[in-house]
Amino acid sequence: MRPLYDFVIHLDKRYNNELKHGGLSLVRDHRWDDFEDRISYGTIKATPAKYDTPAAIGDTLVFHHHVNQQPDKYGMGDDHYMVTFDPETRSCQAIAVIKPSGEIITLANWVLLDAPPAEKKEECSDSGLFLGYAEKDTTNTEGVVRAKNMFITDVNIGDTVGFRNNADYRVRLPEPHGEVFRMHIDDIYYVVE
Fold this sequence. Notes:
The structure is a single chain. The radius of gyration is 18 Å and the shape is globular. 7% of the residues lie in helices and 40% in strands. The protein has one domain. By secondary structure, the protein is mainly beta. A hairpin with a 5-residue loop joins strand 11 (120-124) and strand 12 (130-135). An 8-stranded mixed beta sheet has the order 6-7-1-4-5-8-9-14. It has helices at residues 34-37, 65-69, 71-74, and strands at residues 6-10, 18-21, 24-27, 41-46, 60-63, 75-77, 80-84, 94-98, 104-106, 110-114, 120-124, 130-135, 142-144, 148-149, 160-163, 169-172, 179-184, 188-191.
């Protein structure tokens, strides 16, 4: 089977919420913080027939979090999911391809920037009960481009770019790639020369 417009990916599990210590295993309820535990990448099993992309079967596809959060809509059974690819619209959910060599290529109008480490602050009740972590309120408006894009030639790896306020959505890539900010190319205002 080869879909016309979508990728098909295999995703072993939707959340990385299992803590292991010795022979014990504890599964944390992902509803506590599904952004922290969400897995937004999987192994490509089929590529869209209508579009020529740099992706191949066996590559890793980074996708929009809606695929993970809405298994009834995108799930196909047997841990397989459809990931929309439409390079003409903002609704494209296929963000990037990671080749076996480690090369990252962003798809459609997506851009990945290096993300500085998130600063977390403990939140406690008046009695001192730990309530969780809150990310420190920081505003990022510049970043360094991490990956080349399949279409965009005027923004390159290593360029420092300025972007729209709140466009810096943090995504965790598979190891060893760490975290990045993902955004659309029209969220970028300028390239620093």
